[in-house]
Amino acid sequence: MQGKVAVSGAKNAALPLLAATLLAPGTYTLHNVPDLRDTRTMLKLLQILGASWERDGSTVQVNSVNLTGAEAPYELVKTMRASVLVLGPLLGRVGYARVSLPGGCAIGARPIDYHLNGFQQLGVVSSLEGGYVEARVQGELTGGKVWFDIPSVTATENLLMAAVKAKGETIIQNAAKEPEVGNLIDMLTAMGAEIKGKGTDFLTVTGVKELHPATISIIPDRIEAGTYLIAAGAAGGSLEVTDCDPSHLTALIEKLRAAGMQIEVYADRCIASRSVDGTPLRAVDITTMPYPGFPTDLQAQFMALMLCCNGVSIIHETIFENRFMHVAELRRLGAEIVIDGGSAVVTGIPRERLIGAPVMATDLRASASLVVAGLAASGTTEISRIYHLERGYEKMAEKLRQTGAAVEQVAD
């Protein structure tokens, strides 16, 4: 690989920020919004709830003056778990929401209990019936203390969007610290919310009576950026990843350097290099952790990189219980991987033994791992069900072709 690839806005930031436009009536302007299956789904959901929107390139304007509903139907929610994020803003604005239990990738349970237990502390009564969550504010939203046993990004975001309209003070302990949560806090603050503790696991929200529309930019997608850095290691050569925030990628960059890659870090870009003379990288162990630890959303891609490294890599997955579904497909290329509970043991093999084959994507990040493995393998790798990939990567095939990679997206 040679050249540059630009990173799009973060899917996992765009979705809660789009949901937040429901909190107060008016017109919002969001810049750097990626055009993905998931963002299109969220925009459809906003439209069903009565909002209107327009897109001009990567800028989206949402008008939420007229809300006509408070129900997120199964037909949309089944394709994207993040649809549950409309719960918080609907409770904050109209005091009621009916949302289908979330669907999306089958990588783990991702229970909604954290959301509902947190809402309960704010005076919300909820029930589960017929596959739907029905939540209603009893009287008015009131501040409370919320504790998460495990940091949950979407639960933290949902609670923030409700708490900004709650009377009094809300404290969220063991909150998620991901940059995407920080991006939402920036938007809510621009709307008039009072939130302290950004970037920490202790958030204090002082409720306000009124919020107003805001203009905000979506942060760069750290998972997309990380995927391209990993891809440079798999394919070899030198790749400049632009329009990113390297401070969000510290855990990955340290692991790539430990594996033998050269990573140059600048304010808004990284240059990743690996020798193309056939010298293999070194096997490195990883354990997925909440931010700022190694991201679970890069585990599958990193495993693909480890296929041709010298030695044995042990990959511990601690976030989602079903996130090794890509292993069976990687084995079709010749990978030597053994699953042992929540760990995968990857034994590096000579690159010539990694040979392209037809494979099938099972979820979003698994599909990206198959692209990475295909770049490392000889021959042709044909990946089916790439609609998973399109949920989180904007124009990936086009971007990779700009670097000299032989990647083509074909119609089914």
From TrEMBL:
EC number: 2.5.1.7
Catalytic machinery residues: C105 (proton donor)
Any one Gene Ontology cellular component term annotated for this protein: cytoplasm
Coiled coil (UniProt feature): none
GO MF, one example: UDP-N-acetylglucosamine 1-carboxyvinyltransferase activity
GO BP, sorted A to Z: cell division; cell wall organization; peptidoglycan biosynthetic process; regulation of cell shape; UDP-N-acetylgalactosamine biosynthetic process
Catalyzed reactions: phosphoenolpyruvate + UDP-N-acetyl-alpha-D-glucosamine = UDP-N-acetyl-3-O-(1-carboxyvinyl)-alpha-D-glucosamine + phosphate
Record keywords, A-Z: Cell cycle, Cell division, Cell shape, Cell wall biogenesis/degradation, Cytoplasm, Peptidoglycan synthesis, Pyruvate, Signal, Transferase
Pfam families: EPSP_synthase
Main location: cytoplasm
Ranges where the Enolpyruvate transferase domain occurs: 2-400
Pathway(s) per entry: Cell wall biogenesis; peptidoglycan biosynthesis
Residue numbers binding UDP-N-acetyl-alpha-D-glucosamine: R81, D297, I319
Cleaved signal peptide residues: 1-19
Protein name: UDP-N-acetylglucosamine 1-carboxyvinyltransferase
Organismal lineage: Bacteria, Pseudomonadati, Thermodesulfobacteriota, Desulfobulbia, Desulfobulbales
